[in-house]
Amino acid sequence: MDFSYSEEQQMLQDSVQKFVASQYDFETRCKVLEKEGGYDKANWELFAELGWLTVPFREEDGGFSGSAVDLMVVMEEFGRGLVVEPFLATAVLAGGLISALGSDAQKSELLATIMEGKAQLATAYAEPDSRYNLASVKTTAVRQGEEFVLNGDKVVVLNAPNAAQIIVTARTSGESGDRDGISAFLVDSQAAGVTLRSYATVDGQQAAEVHLKDVKVTSANLLGEEGKALPALEQTIDQATVAICSEAVGAMDSLLSKTVEYAKTRKQFGVPIGTFQALQHRMAEMFIDCQLARSIVIMAAMKLDSNESAEQKAKAVSAAKSQVGRAIRKVGQEAVQIHGGIAVTDELDVGHYFKRVTAIEHQFGTTDYHTRRYARLA
Amino acid sequence: MTRIVLAGPSRRTKVNADFTAEELTFQKDVKAFLESEFPSDIKHKVDNGIALEKDDYVRWQKILNNKGWAAPNWPVEYGGTGWTPTQKYIFAMEMGLYGAMEPVAFGMKMVAPVIYSFGSEEQKQRFLPDILASNVWWCQGYSEPNAGSDLASLKTTAVRDGDHYVVNGTKTWTTLGQHADWIFCLVRTDSTVKKQEGISFLLIDMKTPGITVSPIVLLDGEPEVNEVHFDDVRVPAENLIGEENKGWTYAKVLLTHERTNIAQVPNSKLRLRRLRKIASETADGFGGNLLDDPVFAGKLAEVEIQITALEFAELRTLAAVSVGKAPGPESSILKVVGTEASQFIDELYMEVAAYHSMPHVKDQFTEGFSGEHVGTGSLAASADKYFNHRKKSIYGGSNEVQKNIISKAVLGL
């Protein structure tokens, strides 16, 4: 048993850590948010240059490893620095689906452009009535000769405003809720019939409601076998779930260390507030939550990299999201409360970490959703 | 429903919570008044989560004032209603359940009680009528960047110079400072004595030269609070309330008034009622609605139960007040539990919103927005509300300070 990182993982961690420490302080991040597209294109090129965009992909696809533990290393440091570049949307989600479903031709074309930093992509899976059930798909794709005609609505599609192409899940057969009959299509975001209601999210990402009205795609845009996309979608979302849990672990570490630092320096009643035992115990509890979150995320990442069944992997992912979700609520709220008024202002970084981890809590399923999913998986 | 029958020599103790016939009639009158007089355009905004403007508050308060109902808690001689505690409770409950705003607290609940309790006759004449009619808006100058929970350590100074005080310093968390005409401040007039004993209560016209207001943007992106800077601001000595160096005593009285309805029971009940309806109409993704989810339904039930307990805790406090006891440190319970329950309701709204908790779409919650509306109702504002409402357990004496009060004043620790 050994939880220490390999030499490559250590190098990867050092490299991301160095970037965050030297080029991504809070003030810089605020400026990044103001840039066109809500991220820094120079950073994106740097990510490609440093090889970070290859991390989610297997060696046979030209990637670094495709290992969940490697991805965890990167995401944790992104979380520590509140990095907003659309790594998750483009490389982990869209890249993951293409990698899982794409034909050799699709993979060689698309994965290379992702890894070179030349593509921005999005994945549209959630719908107004689906909540977190990935099989709840009402968007339809009807075959007409060599074409499919897509109709439906997708919600909160991350990075859609920046994406040249959006992967859309649509039902080619069956009823909403059926596991069979869901297909994935690459849709040009400029295609006739595609409209976006774009906005920023509370945590500074770019997203959109995506509407599809008689959008025509050819069968060349189909990813994988018709009607068989769900297992790959589930597997990709599970990978992405562990990735954002890792991000939360990094962000919560920042919240804890900032809170402890503040408690040591902020004086009220003539003494640093960190001398009050009532607050000391609460920070000790934050530490416990952070450590449990870190531990269960490592477990889940290792499980994803193992040869266990898909069901055991899913169960591990839900365990992690459930535990991390509880930690987020406690650590996030306590960090704000112990800081007091200053933490509900826009000017202090603590509130922005709080917003990011809260968004993570509601992405890919809440604590309750994942606790239920865990209980259902034997 | 709720009536407190007090133990007394002429009345055997008989615990009940029913309204008398007169109280039921009063309740009917309040309901009818709200239905006919609360402006429909403001009601539309409240029901749809659209941001209210200053004029909405002014207009509604003028309607209340014309009816004579703007200030139920004031003594009758200054414009109060003379209602019994039960009537006041009914009024606050019906207002809250209808979604009608309470008058802005800074004038009505915070400075006015200090003015009518400790101010001169001239100050009463000068300030109270304009507060009642919402002609003049007030803001609060208490907290400072280094005086939060430890409010008494405040450093803004007021130095007597002839018939003026010269004020220097910075106040913070000044809600509505950008809209206020006047500010009431705690200032240090003596730094040689124990910190609580050198504080005075001063009323300052916001148009006085030397005052600058700088907005502080909160987590939801709104400049809701401000820093107010005082740079050699000359304030007429006649604006001092009561005696010099007695300000801390006056402020404590004010804090007691601030805590009436701090439990926010009517508002929480209204929000829960709406939440239950939205949840019943929200698909759970598995063919049912959210109320079919036993975990969610359980959480909703838990908070409803807590609000009920809180309501009766508040009624017991009210009963004590009605026999002439000042609301004691027990009102700290109302602050702690009321704010935490309210914050928990924010969390449930986010859970109902699911992915739609993430969009930051302030534009669609302003009057006249005509673009595509994201998410059902105001669900897309749920995270922004959650972030903003974290202030509730921090302001008005943080919940930690409330627990200190309970530890010391109630438990004697």
From TrEMBL, chain A:
Q: Which residues form the Acyl-CoA dehydrogenase/oxidase C-terminal domain?
A: 234-376
Q: Which cofactor does it need?
A: FAD
List, alphabetically, the InterPro entries matched. Answer: Acyl-CoA_Oxase/DH_mid-dom (IPR006091), Acyl-CoA_Oxase/DH_mid-dom_sf (IPR046373), AcylCo_DH-like_C (IPR036250), AcylCo_DH/oxidase_C (IPR009075), AcylCoA_DH/ox_N (IPR013786), AcylCoA_DH/ox_N_sf (IPR037069), AcylCoA_DH/oxidase_NM_dom_sf (IPR009100)
An example molecular function term from Gene Ontology annotations: acyl-CoA dehydrogenase activity
Q: Domain named Acyl-CoA oxidase/dehydrogenase middle: which ranges?
A: 122-215
| Superkingdom classification of source | Bacteria
Keyword Oxidoreductase assigned to the entry: answer is: yes
Q: What is this protein called?
A: Pimeloyl-CoA dehydrogenase small subunit
Could you tell me which species this protein originates from?
Answer: Pseudohongiella nitratireducens
